[in-house]
Specification:
Layout: H1 5-33, E1 39-48, E2 54-65, E3 69-71, H2 73-82, H3 86-106, E4 113-117, H4 120-124, H5 128-139, E5 146-151, H6 152-156, H7 159-172, E6 175-181, E7 198-201, H8 213-228, E8 232-235, H9 241-249, E9 254-255, H10 266-274
Parallel strand pairs: 2-4, 4-5, 5-6, 6-7, 7-8, 8-9
Antiparallel strand pairs: 1-2, 1-9, 2-3
Helix pairs in contact: 3-5
The chain binds ligand C2E and calcium ion (CA) (3 copies).
One calcium ion binds at residues 180, 202-203, 236.
Length: 279
């Protein structure tokens, strides 16, 4: 390794340079992505494990740049947060998701819910509550059909203020979910103070579920706790029929994952999910 030291340093520098270039370019492109209509939503169906029916979907943001191609939200959302673009982007997602779901209501599927991801700085922004109200007003979607997915860390960042906003949202009828549940570092004691409706068990506890005894124990405990706290429990990242059967046996309310449906374009959602199902 020693004799290659110089080469390695050079290689690394070039690579780093590429990453910086990519990053600067991404920032520049991202700011224009909305105006250029490069963003769209996909909808991942949410299954009620008891009734076997699809009750709605989670909206997932996509960005397709003409040259770079599809960029993962895991990559561009942190950038959008850093450059302060997340507010425009978040508002667009909220409005678009509510409008689309309202269209499906008008086709006769009136009970469909839509779950929208909210990033930490979007949630902490002073206009967030009004943004939600505005999206509901503009779309005419009933508030109880809108679920917002927040992470533990974004709720706890500014707990007093967060609780205030979450309570106002619930008074409006909007549901609040804890996303990626189980991956935060916080204690469970806050659960009794936070105004929430749903726990969404993180994918990392689900993907080995059928063969890992500790995952089963953890998931079982979360579901039991959810029932005790009168919360709905969702399992995300369900990839096999076996996992789904197990979750159903453990009395998990809802499930989402490739075993059920992948995220779908709006047209696909209509064709593959709505058509043929009763409204
Ligand atoms: P998330 O909220 O945990 O969303 C679930 C992710 O898992 C999605 O990735 C989804 O496509 C993927 N997934 C669904 N089912 C399965 C499965 O069975 N197996 C596996 N391996 N993966 C599955 P995606 O769409 O790439 O989104 C990644 C993350 O980006 C999301 O994680 C969420 O935190 C964030 N994100 C996506 N859309 C938005 C948005 O509109 N706003 C904000 N703030 N964040 C978003
Ligand atoms: Ca989510
Ligand atoms: Ca998430
Ligand atoms: Ca997750």
């Amino acid at each position: 390794a020693k004799q290659n030291g110089g080469n390695n340093v050079k290689l690394y520098a070039t690579k780093m340079n590429e990453q910086v270039m990519h990053r600067v370019e991404l920032e520049r492109y991202l700011r224009k992505a909305l105006d250029k209509n490069e963003c769209f939503l996909v909808y991942q169906p949410l299954l009620d494990l008891m009734s076997g029916k699809i009750i709605g979907s989670e909206a997932l943001l996509r960005w397709k740049h003409p040259k770079i191609g599809l960029v993962s939200p895991l990559e561009f959302i942190p950038i959008a947060e850093e450059i302060g673009f997340i507010h425009d982007l978040g508002r667009w997602v909220l409005t678009e998701a509510c409008m689309q779901t309202k269209k499906w209501h008008d086709l006769g599927f009136r009970s469909l819910i839509i779950s929208v991801n909210v990033s930490a700085s979007q949630f902490q922004h002073p206009t967030f509550f009004e943004d939600v109200q505005q999206a509901l007003k503009q779309s005419q979607l009933p508030a109880h059909c809108l679920h917002l997915e927040l992470t533990e860390s974004s709720m706890l960042r500014n707990m007093y203020y967060s609780i205030h906003v979450m309570k106002k949202l619930q008074q409006l009828g909007v549901h609040v979910s804890i996303d990626d549940f189980g991956t935060g570092y916080s204690s469970l004691s806050y659960l009794k103070d936070l105004p929430i409706n749903t726990l969404k068990i993180d994918r990392s506890f689900i993907y080995q579920l059928h063969k890992d005894r500790s995952d089963i124990a953890i998931v079982k405990s979360i579901i039991t706790m959810g029932h005790g706290l009168r919360l709905k429990v969702v399992a995300e990242g369900v990839e096999t029929a076996e996992q789904m059967k197990l979750l159903k046996r453990l009395k998990c309310h809802y499930a989402q994952g490739y075993a059920i449906f992948k995220p779908l374009l709006a047209e696909q959602f209509e064709q593959q999910v709505l058509q043929g199902s009763e409204s």
